[in-house]
Specification:
The protein has about 130 residues and is an alpha+beta fold. The protein has helices spanning about 45-60, 105-110, 120-129, and strands at about 5-15, 15-20, 35, 35-40, 60-75, 80-90, 100-105. The protein binds 2'-deoxycytidine-5'-monophosphate. Its EC number is 3.6.1.55.
Length: about 130
C-alpha cells in the first residue's frame, strides 16, 4: 500500500454515463462509490499515475485529459485531484473493486459516494446532463 501525498482519480465518461467503482477498503469507505484512481508514485506525473491506476485496477486503457473541480484535502495531509479520462479500450474488470457501474446525472447524485468525491458532484452532473 502506497502512502502517496497526491492521489488522482479519473472521471471516465462513456455515452453520457460516468464510471463509478465500489471500494472494498478501508472499512470506512468499503461499499461506497468512487471515481477510480490511486496514488501518484515518486517521480511519476499525475497523468501517468492515473493511466497506470486505471489499467492496474480495472484493465482500462485511457487518455487522461484536464483536471476537473477543486483539489480535495484527504486525511494525513494528502491531496486528491480528479481528471477527465477518455476511454480508449477495455471493459472494466473487478480487480480491486467489488462492483462498477455507469451512471447518469441522477444515478451520480443518488449514489453513496466516498465523502471526498462529493466535491465534484455538481460539475460531473452538469457534464452528464
Ligand atoms: N480516495 C478518495 N476518492 C477517490 C480515490 C481515492 O477519497 N476517488 C482516497 C481513498 C484513500 C486514498 O484516496 O484514502 C488512496 O486511494 P487508494 O486506496 O484507492 O489508493
Amino acid at each position: 500500500m502506497r502512502d502517496a501525498r497526491e492521489v488522482v482519480a479519473g472521471a471516465v465518461v462513456r455515452q453520457g454515463h460516468l464510471l463509478l467503482a465500489r471500494r472494498t477498503w478501508p472499512v470506512a469507505l468499503a461499499g461506497r462509490w468512487e471515481l477510480p484512481g490511486g496514488g501518484v508514485d515518486e517521480g511519476e506525473t499525475p497523468v501517468a499515475a492515473l493511466a497506470r491506476e486505471l489499467e492496474e485496477e480495472l484493465g482500462l486503457t485511457v487518455r487522461v485529459d484536464e483536471q476537473l473541480g477543486a483539489d480535495v484535502g484527504l486525511p494525513g495531509g494528502r491531496v486528491l485531484r480528479a481528471r477527465w479520462a477518455e476511454l480508449v479500450e477495455g471493459e472494466p474488470q473487478l480487480r480491486e473493486h467489488s462492483a462498477v457501474r455507469w451512471v447518469d446525472a441522477h444515478g451520480l447524485v443518488s449514489a453513496d459516494l466516498v465523502p471526498a468525491d462529493r466535491a465534484w458532484t455538481a460539475e460531473l452532473a452538469a457534464r452528464l446532463a
